[in-house]
Design goal:
The protein is of the alpha/beta class. Helix content is about 45%, strand content about 10%. It has 21 helices and 17 strands. Strands 15-14-13-12-7-6-4-5-2-1-17 form an eleven-stranded mixed beta sheet, sandwiched between helices. Helix 2 packs across helix 6 and helix 10 packs across helix 17. It is globular and about 80 Å long. GO terms for molecular function: acyltransferase activity. This is Class I poly(R)-hydroxyalkanoic acid synthase. It is found in: Cytoplasm. It comes from Agrobacterium vitis. One of its GO terms (biological process) is poly-hydroxybutyrate biosynthetic process.
Amino acid sequence: MGFDPSLIDPYIVKDPEALAVNLAKALENLGKAASTWIAPREKAGRVDPVAEPAVELVKTLSGVAEYWMTDPQRSLEAQTHLMTSLFGVWMKSLSRLSMPAQTPPPPEPIKDKRFADADWQRNPFFDFLRQAYLVLSDWAEKLVENTQGMDEHARHKALFYVRQMTAALSPVNFVMTNPQLYRETVATSGANLVKGMKMFAEDMAAGQGELRMRQTDTSKFALGTNMALTPGKVVAQSDVCEVIQYEPATDKVLKRPLLICPPWINKFYILDLNPEKSFIKYCVDQGHTVFVISWVNPDQRHAGKDWLSYIREGVDFALDTVEKATGEKKVNAIGYCVGGTLLSAAMALHAKEGNSRIASATLFTTQVDFTHAGDLKVFVDEEQVSGLEEKMRQKGYLDGSKMASAFNMLRSSELIWPYFVNNYLKGQDPTAFDLLYWNADSTRMAAANHSFYLRNCYLENNLARGKMQLDGKTLSLKDVKIPIYNLATKEDHIAPAKSVFVGSACFGGPVTYVMSGSGHIAGVVNPPDKRKYQFWTNGKPEGTFEDWVAGAEETAGSWWPHWQKWIEGLDKRRVAARKPGGTALNAIGDAPGSYVLERV
């Protein structure tokens, strides 16, 4: 036999009575979670938030099923391919069992970290499950890819839903089919499940009938205590934002102030997690006078605040604040993600109005052309947007949990299922991790603003097409002729590097395109001291993205010093350091301000 019998011992229940008692306790806790889930759904008029995505999934995948099922020959070929592949896995497993126990097969390289436990390969039962699952997952994806007559948006959605399903059905996510969970359950006589189901019930109660899965220990973090620590003052406040000016750290500072426009879909302190990771602190240390827009967490009062409101009461309000505090009319601006899209629209509007206060712009993972936008396009078509708008009309905003769930679904194998297994099946408390604390600190979206963004950017791509209209003017990014530093990240699933590259051609001035290693967050928040990742440069973003990448020069480490050199190359004049507010503005409060403290 090609199997060592001693490997079975950790899977043999030693105390059946204790296991039975703990399973009963776990089921009791599961019952509490079920009651919490049912309670709000028993109320009249309550729409189950799970129902609509399920309907969308069935509707999307029905097109795939119809293609394969309506032709018997085609259906037979697909089934034959699957059965042949599974039979190959079965024969491989039988062959392995016939080998001498002393000569187990060499381990395969671990390509999927979900299957890192040694018993996924060492134990024939779990090895078969692993290989069969991978075969089934690959087969399901190929069904979608090979479905003919399907438009690309529908195919994109179908692939997304198939991957969600296969991620959920992975043997990693079940006690009896995950060797590590099985051993843990046997070793603790099911105590792990008792604690896990207790946490499950608590998280269901915290979400008032919707699972609010904890990804980190939120009790370990507090803004202004061990996060968002860069010293500064709130020097201005509008209905949609606070403007923070940071204390200088050098005697001389660059003449041009730096204004950062972060996304309102998240909170700005991703750029100031802690002193070691803070881009804001880095900029202050390099001699920038840094201003940051901290967006309000909107409620029903902000329902009518649209894209133009966020420009006038956000970007323009901040520019006015910078001028009052420093006396400078020209600024270097940074926009991150949708904050960069808003900033780009603002610059196009400014060009129409003869407003030249923004002298240069840096865009972090920003899309202005949404032709090649990432997986978020799965959630955006006319039917889904119309449904979302109807929901937002009822409240005046989109719940922060909805956007957070969408982002988590984009990487469900990393941001959902590992925590499901760790918290509810292993019964382990999540570790304290500042990035995941920020990720869970979601924000609401004002109805008018979010609707404008979805329609004009994702649905109609109006900014890139020169058809976006604001304040009675039709905007063209070709009117934006200032220097732009356009940063993409190689593994970005929200603003793909290709999408950012293509968007570079929309502007009318010189664009420096840089691609950083890693993804949407880690590729941006990559301080030089960490010596992680790399970035690529290759002159102007011309030709195809693939050709640009092929000819790009790779540089190890952070892109931050490269950006600093670029921005000083535009204007390196320095003046005496400036205190927050200058002589014209009084501080309203200390950084990080009050708007950022409101949690959903």
